[in-house]
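#structure-requests
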Amino acid sequence: MHTKINSKVLVYVLCIALFMTLSTRFLPSNKVSAEVTHDLSIAHLSIADGSIVVSDALQLFTPQLPEAAEIKPVERQEAALPEPELSIIPEIHSAAAQPSVQEPPILTYAVTAFYLNVREKPDADSDIIKVLKQGDIIQVDHATDNGWLALKDQGFVHGRYAKQIEEKAAPVAEKALEVKILAKANTKAEAATPFNDTLEIKPAKAIPLPSDPERPTSVVESDSGLTEEHIAKLFEKTALADHGLEQAILEVEEEYGINAYFTIAVMKLESGNGKSTLAKKKNNLFGLNALDSDKYNKAFAFETKGDSVRKFGQLLAKNYIDKGYTTIDKVASKYCPANPKWSSLVMNIMKRDYKKL
C-alpha cells in the first residue's frame, strides 16, 4: 500500500515537473512562479505521510526558478538614416537675371583737320590743353549733346573734325582658324629656332594725309584743308605776316566751321592786307563795330591781332551762320550791305589764294 502511494506521488510529481517546464516556456515568469508555488503548497499539504518524499522529489525535479527580474521595455533603436546630401546647384548668371554693368565702349577716332585744339571743356572759349594734327588717333569716351567729343584721357575736341574708325571684327570661325594656324606655326618655329625674348614692334600705318588744300566755294561753313604753312605762305609780303594769325584762323575753322579761306579773304579786304589804321592801332582786322558815324572810336580794340580773328569767328557763328546766313552772298547782305560788290571781292581773293598754293 505504501509503495503504491509512493508510486502515485512520484507520477504526480513528474507531471507537476513537466507542467512547470512547459509553463516556463509559454507563461510569463511571475505568473509561473505564483502558480507553481500554489500547486506545490497544495501537494505538500494533501499528503501527510509522504511529505518527505514529496519534498525530496521536488528538490530533484523542480527546476530552480530565477528571481523575478524587473522587466524593462525594450527601447526601439531606429536605424540611423544618412543625412541628405546637399545638392550644389551652380548659379546661372544670365543677362536677364543678373544684368552686368558694362562700361560704355571706348571709341577710336582719327583727326581730319590739319590742326585740332583739345579744349579743357566742351566750349570754344575754354582753355586749350594741346593741339593735335591730322591723322592723330584719339580715344573718345562719349559725345556731348553740343557735338563735342570727350577724350578718354582729358579734354574735348569738336566732333566735326574727327572721324570714327570702324573696327570690323573677323568671324569666329576665321579667328579660331587663325589662332590654330598661328599656334601651329609658333610650335614649329620654337622647335626650329632657339628662344628669343625680343619682340619686334612694327609701327602702325599712318593715315594718308591729303596733299592739296580744298578748292574754296561760296559755302562759309566748310573745310578748307589749309595748314599753318599754307596760311603763312598766303601772308607772305603783307602786313599780316609774322603775327601768329595762322593758328587763330585754324581755331576758328575748327570750333565754328568757318572756312579758313573766307576768314583770310575778309581779313585782307577789310584791313587792306593789314595796313589799315584799325589794324595797326587797334589790332582790328575786320572793322568790327566800326560804325559809319564814328568808325575809329566805336570800333573794337584788341590786345593782339589773333584775338581779333577769334572774335570774328565767334560773332559770325552766332549772328550769321546760326541764323541761316551760310553763304558768302547771304553774309554780305548783312555784313556789308553798303557795298554790293563785297561778296564778289571776297570770292576773288579766295580764288587767288587757292592758286598761290
